[in-house]
């Protein structure tokens, strides 16, 4: 069984998770004109729970699937416990100069709200400061998939729980693979060969890339053995103690990315400027490029890749162990100093119950954090879904590692895109690890 261990603070580029947050939580912006959610909530005659997140409550006649699904579970909690969950939003505050992560750090440290939606690096920081409640006290916690427990456990405490497991994979045009008699790749070598064939047949850039998600190639190769063996806990402990180096894990993936760039399979200059899906998406949909990368939900939505004019398949990233999904976990967390602690625990137990998560998963067509909740996914996602159900994955975010993974790796991959050598990239990881070790003393 895969298990997690001690995790501590590592401050890094929190903005990298915006690549997911912006797409999953579409209203996360710096619009400061919305103030309707900032209603006084100090009325002692009412039971009110304060939730801080990047989006407001759904408005009538406005369709937002992700928010509607969440609102449905919140409504269940309000009815079950005779209380009100009041949304306090990032967009409703005057935070032009601060990121969402900066704001949540400040609010949790000052006990300003009860319940928060947090990014992975923020979970790591606040949990290491003992500012988040251990959610293992929830009745619903016993139903969680191991991947959620591993990703969000810090110092032995389950610090946050999401309503969905965000899985990243390769989105491929199966028709283009069939045209050139190519099998969908499993290993790095097979993937490289597919790119060679595409390039030689006139496809200028086989891989459509953006500045957010190329790190998934690195994670799949770096941590395939770590997360899919029986020594996960021991291997992470060695990293956290400095007995092993993150750069040794990361080097093969960075060397692989460098080779893809050098051979022209990835356009580094273009990828460096592209936003997720908005940049490479048009070429993928018009069948100019056969491969892009995205998160699970992008296959379900009409605004991304949900209705292409070709046979779409979503597979894992190439690794020595075959196709490997990459998982990044955000989560809802309870402030340890919450004013309404007992009621907030009750709300969390309701919205994370199997009943509520079934509604959420069916509405959004996503992978549930509960091992008891499954949905019938579209055919394109079945290869990825099968891997997750078989407990095959690597984590792109792990609060138990003392070097934050997602944001740091994203930024160092950007250095590679901008001309840095692999050795220079590895030096960056070594410096991050040295800093983390000093912070632990």
Account of the 3D structure:
Helix 3 runs parallel beside helix 4 (120-128). Residues 1-43 have low confidence and may be disordered. This protein has helices spanning 18-24, 65-81, 100-109, 120-128, 146-151, 174-179, 188-200, 215-222, 224-227, 232-241, 246-262, 268-273, 281-285, 341-351, 354-364, 382-389, 406-417, 422-440, and strands spanning 48-53, 84-89, 115-118, 153-154, 157-158, 166-173, 291-295, 312-315, 326-328, 331-334, 394-395. It is 41% helix and 10% strand. By secondary structure, the protein is of the alpha/beta class. Strands 6, 7, 8, 9 and 11 form a five-stranded mixed beta sheet that branches. A four-stranded mixed beta sheet has the order 2-1-3-10, sandwiched between helices. A two-stranded antiparallel ribbon has the order 4-5.
List the topology elements:
Blueprint: H1 18-24, E1 48-53, H2 65-81, E2 84-89, H3 100-109, E3 115-118, H4 120-128, H5 146-151, E4 153-154, E5 157-158, E6 166-173, H6 174-179, H7 188-200, H8 215-222, H9 224-227, H10 232-241, H11 246-262, H12 268-273, H13 281-285, E7 291-295, E8 312-315, E9 326-328, E10 331-334, H14 341-351, H15 354-364, H16 382-389, E11 394-395, H17 406-417, H18 422-440
Helix pairs in contact: 2-14, 2-15, 3-4, 8-11, 11-18, 17-18
